[in-house]
User: Fold this.
Amino acid sequence: MNKNEIDKIKSKRTIAIISHPDAGKTTLTEQFLLRGGAINVAGKVKAKTGAKNTKSDFLKIEQERGISISASALSFNFKCLNFNLVDTPGHSDFSEDTYRALSAVDSSIMIIDGAKGIESQTKKLFEVCRLRDMPIMTFCNKMDRESRDLLEIIDEIQEQLAIDVAPLSWPVGIGQNFKGVYNILKDEYEIFESKSRHMSQNITIKGLHNDQIKTFLSPELRSKFFEEYELITSLLPKFDKKPFREGSLTPIHFGSALKSLGVDQLLDNIGGFAPSPGNFETETRIIKAEESKVSGFVFKIQANTDMKHRDRVAFTRLSSGHFKKGMKLYHSRLNKYITISNPIMFFGQDRDTTDEAYAGDIIGIPNHGTLRIGDSLSEGEKIKFKNLPSFAPEILRSISCPDPLKSKHLDKALSQFAEEGLASLFKTLIGARWIIGVVGKLQFDVLESRIQHEYGLQIKYEKTNFFTARWLSGDEILINELVNKNKEQIAIDYDGKKVFLARIQWDIDRLGKDFPGVKLNKVKNFSF
Ligand code: G4P
Assistant:
């Protein structure tokens, strides 16, 4: 790979935002895109109601409910750097896809609502990042609203997430008194100046004790700020890049996505400290981003984005090399070469065919079912990526079609959703019933709506006695023995893997004791 190509890769930051619904992910994304020039009017990424529609609101149910379900990837530039933002579906119920989106990024931004602190979805997502020791930047949002005590929030992060927190900024005033943020690294204030009801600008004041700050802050606000600043700089750890990169320290930023304060600083620090595209582990070796040969893996399938064409896009994270449109890449699972003739990338609101892409980029590959989640592409090497997990469903229901003549259509629809990774699909060993498993129950509504709209089928869900599934691995003879003794609780998943369907936790504990040589896995690696 030549220097120019290596520089291109080094200038990329592939990131995701993890947060609880309503913490401000969409607003922050919008601010990023505004800065990158990818959009020019705020309010275009997602409008919960009204005329403007987000480009990622592909599906009817998303539009009806005004929530963003489908993960997609957006690319934008900021100060000589190229950012790939992998969207994580926002609603708390849609976590399986969100989890997997995190396998495609090199670092994450964790948004915390200052009034709420750590919330359940943030915690779950953080734990997935932890599985890979991923570097995480924290943005404590909504400083223009009344907030909880900030030191208490920092304590909560340290305790609940077991990670050190180093402040890189501190808010100047909070709520109604919010004036801006002080950037600790740059030793400068970013102050919000309201010119009129409809006009405002952010101005920069250099130096902690610059007298100019007196124009904006009352003596009380100033002394309160200095007091807090003294306290946090003596009490909290200093920022250090090494533990950040290792995932044991998160730098915290404060700001307001809505008022666009602290956003540039966040982007600057991602540019300065977050890693450029890094290594990926495969079953045989480590793949480095700067290798000259192209490789990548599919982490997300989005189907039927255009009903007229029944299209299907495989979102692929390039893990190495310099990809060019029209390349023939080796598809490991199918053991054949496929031509990538129409790779797409998403720039703000526009979906465009791209002529080239590099390690770190996310390209969408339109296809008719050849690509599945976990598939790998290369220039001839057989690769199996690790760390592309599928999580055990938390709710299981049986699914059938009231019209028995249409059951073949149902099989087809379900296979597609399983390929998209939207749901886990199991067929029971006894009775060959379809059981569908999801992480959040709203997903059942999504599937029903899509089966109706895309396949014209009515379906029926029924409760089952099962509460979760565990993939079986380990000694084949022991697995077969376990299967024979527990046939009524065994099913086969979409990839032909055996799973145990548990009715209560006790079932899992019992099997663990009876068959110590068999592992009951909560997470399945998706690689083929
Ligand atoms: P999400 O994608 O994480 O679910 O959150 P989103 O950005 O949609 O933000 C949730 C709500 O919080 C929105 O208000 C948004 O305007 C508001 N918000 C986001 N960042 C800030 C901030 O820095 N300060 C304040 N004060 N509010 C913020 P909403 O009324 O629910 O929606 P909308 O009508 O504004 O779209």
Summary: Residues 46-62, 64-71 have pLDDT under 50 and may be disordered. The pocket of guanosine-5',3'-tetraphosphate is lined by residues 19, 21-27, 48, 90, 141-142, 144-145, 256-258 (CB under 6 Å). The CA atoms of residues 97 and 422 lie 7 Å apart. The first strand starts at residue 12 and ends at 18.
